[in-house]
Amino acid sequence: MLQLVLAVSVVVVAVAVYGGLGLRWWWRARLRRGILARVAALDLEPYHAAALKQEKTEAAAAELMLGGYLEIDGEGAARLTEAGREAGRIPVEAAPAALLEAVRRHDPEPVSIGWIDWSDEEYQARCFAYRSERDALLPAIPRMPDWDGRQPWACCGCVGFVLLVCFWLLVAEMLVIVPPHGLREWSAAVVAAAGLAALWFAPAGGRAVRARTECGDALGDRLRAETHPAMAALDERQRLHVLTSAGDRDRWRGVDGFVPDEDEGEGEDESEEDDEDEWWGWVDAYHYRAADHEDGPDGS
Questions:
Q1: Which of 27, 51, 196, 231 is the most buried (most CB within 10 A)?
Q2: DSSP bridge partners of 72
Q3: Which three-class secondary structure string do you get for 110-156?
Q4: What distances in angstroms separate CA 183 from CA 51, 175, 180, 257, one per listed residue?
Q5: What is the DSSP letter of 253?
Q6: 276: exposed, middle or buried (C-beta count within 10 Å: 0-12, 13-18, 19+)?
Q7: What are phi and psi of 69, to 5 degrees?
């Protein structure tokens, strides 16, 4: 009789556990499909997409190179062309226009687009304003919930897991202590043991549900899969020059580069000469005092 009660109890608990896993699978899969569908339906401007993955300056430089405004050599130095120096010629897009004006502020000195992106406050302000304007138009994208220890449902899950472990140990102990008698009790014991085996794999089933319904960074995956049209239109050599210039943040600084003044250099040379004369003066004084000591009472 005890084996029958244990078998019924184990079956009920197993149905409840795996039924909950099934509901969780259905809910997470439905949420995942909604997230992926909403991300796929986003109408992102090319420069907004580039700004979201921190590549707006590279895309703007590629646009300027294709338009004949800018030239970038193999060392990453960007210089204006004759067309780029014409004040009336400005690209339509906001990011290339802001980058062109930044390069014009450094003309005729070479400058890297990485230095502009890193240090030009006016360029940064215009890019920030553009991204803020475009981000405000993005619809809200739901996220897959992350059940960490700070949420009440995570605490409930921990309590349920502890109760399940205690129930499993209790039933297993009862099956071992009380031996079955007769075909009915043996059948019930086998059913109870099978239910315990199924409950043993329930945590692994929960992890599998989480892994197979996880959508990750859906927006980031879409952005990484797309390339800005201007960058795609460049050949391999031009693309390498743009990336080299974007990675250079301290070599080509345009008019912000430090050029030492000639008067300052002469002052440094004079101070070095004064320090050298002073040092040799101390050495001569030491030798004079040593000579006086040798010519003391014994030598006089």
A1: 51
A2: 78
A3: CECHHHHHHHCHHHHHHHHHHHHHHHCCCCCCCCCCCCCCCCHHHHH
A4: 72, 15, 8, 93
A5: B
A6: exposed
A7: -85, -25
Contacting residues for 154 by C-beta, under 8 A, at least 6 apart: 147, 148
* Backbone φ and ψ of 129, nearest 5°: -65, -40
Q: What is the rounded (10 degree) CA torsion for 23, 25, 26, 30?
A: 140
Asked if 197 and 23 count as a contact pair (C-beta separation under 8 A), the reply is: no
Q: How far is CA 247 from the centre of its chain?
A: 16
The three-state secondary structure class of 92 is coil
Are 88 and 97 within 8 A, CB to CB? Answer: no
Measured CA to CA, the distance from residue 240 to residue 234 in angstroms comes to: 9
**213-246: pLDDT as tens digits:** 888 888 888 998 889 999 999 999 999 999 999 9
**C-beta neighbour count of 234 within 10 angstroms:** 19
d(CA 55, CA 75): 19
Structure tokens that stand for 55 in this block:
């590549």
Bridging pattern class, strands 78-80 and 70-72: antiparallel
Question: Token pair of 111, please?
Answer: 């400058």
